[in-house]
Amino acid sequence: MKTNELLVKTSSNLYTKADDEVDAIDKVGPIKLITEGKPSNNFGEPGLMRCGYNDAKNWVRRLSSDTIVGEETNNLYPSYVDTAYDVRRLRKDIINAKVELYVENLMIICNINDVSTVFLMREVVEWTLRNFLSITVYVQDIFKNSTHFDAGDLCRDSNSKQNRIKYWSEKFVQSHDSFFDLVITLGGDGTVLFASSIFSKNVPPIVPFALGSLGFLTNFEFHKFKEILKHILKDKVRVNLRMRLQCRLYRRNKPEIDPVTRKKVCFIDFVSEHHVLNELTVDRGPTPCLSLLELYGHNSLMTKVQGDGLIVATPTGSTAYSLSAGGSLISPSVNAIAVTPICPHTLSFRPIILPDSMELKVKVGMNSRGTSWVNFDGKDRVELKQGDYVVIAASPYAVPTVESSPSEFFESISKNLNWNDREEQKPFAHILSPKNQEKYKMDSSKNEHGSITNSFDSLSTSLDAHNEERQPKAEPEIVVERTRQAHFAI
Hints:
Blueprint: E1 5-9, H1 16-26, E2 33-35, E3 38-40, H2 53-64, H3 76-96, E4 99-100, E5 105-110, H4 115-131, E6 136-140, H5 151-158, E7 165-168, H6 170-175, E8 182-187, H7 189-198, E9 206-210, E10 220-221, H8 225-234, E11 236-237, E12 239-242, E13 245-252, E14 256-257, E15 264-276, E16 279-283, E17 291-297, E18 300-313, H9 321-324, E19 336-344, E20 352-355, E21 360-364, E22 372-376, E23 379-384, E24 389-394, E25 399-402, H10 408-417, H11 434-446, H12 450-470
Parallel strand pairs: 1-15, 5-6, 5-8, 6-7, 8-9, 9-10
Antiparallel strand pairs: 2-3, 4-11, 12-25, 13-15, 13-24, 14-15, 16-18, 16-22, 17-18, 17-21, 18-19, 19-20, 21-24, 22-23
């Protein structure tokens, strides 16, 4: 039965700290960045980057306000355009910026289901204790009495004190926000996802070493860990701020009679909050019926989903479940939300990429024949009944991962997916006999017909290229780019 009113019961101080952080950002003055290790203050025209976050925010507010005192609205639009351009330039410089990591508390996460990774973790811990005397290493608390790890033996071999090896638990991490300076993961992508899940707010930079069979997040090779960690701990590095999704789960209760108004009131309770790095998935679960989901954007109904379910993924998660369901690849440096249907009941429902500024809501329709199930990064599976919904928005807490190379994303998809890998077209001129090869060259130079001449020229070129392959390779050419400047005579 339809109700006359909807009430949401949530904690009033749920986002108090996040709001305080935004207010603190508003008070920041002009922004200075470190690009390639050097301060960058000069920006080319248009857009002079003459304002900080607070000034840019004020420009947008002034332009969108109804009444502006002392200024004409026509004079604000150019400033608005310049501010928008400045923000894009600023984001570009943030992506290219290098940061220096000051590490005192180092956290190591390994795949506890594989004993061999425990011994690899021993090597990392011993090397760190020997070479960086100011670093305290934290390993998971299950290794406190482990004979495989044997912390006492590690301290004796590295000539370090026993208190330099300490232990962390999920409860300890949640109660010590911004405590760890660096995280090292030893495993596959699942280990990185686990590291993201235990940090509900601020996530320290992560150095993911590849020890799995297939990894898009783990771009560091373990056999080079000494050189890699020495570079990260001593030099400036680039960090990818991987976007996460903030997912808030709400449950609809049965209608009740308000004793004052005597009207039916439906209370909606806030259940839980999750920050996901890959994706949120809503599927039909064990029910044989199709899922009937309502997808809202900024509280406006976008479409209804009839099928096996829906995937809402981050750019990092675009290479996971979303890709298998037909979604597009998205670079992690792009802030966007990918919406991908799972086996939709209409051929016209194609995947769509939405801006990260949009707040989505996935709701189980009241007319749905069955319930649905939601999971966050493949975990914490919860049943959604009719009227229950999930609100999805960009999380203010990103997952920073240390960049192995500027092209690591394309290297990973080329290595793991064989992306756009095919054999190139081969010339066939080398198949001809030497006599016919000479004949082709002579005919191509004498022929006056344009199309035939072009075909002979291309054949001659391919023949020359094939012959050059047989010759010893010469020294590579040095290509120098230069800008030509016009000189005018007066």
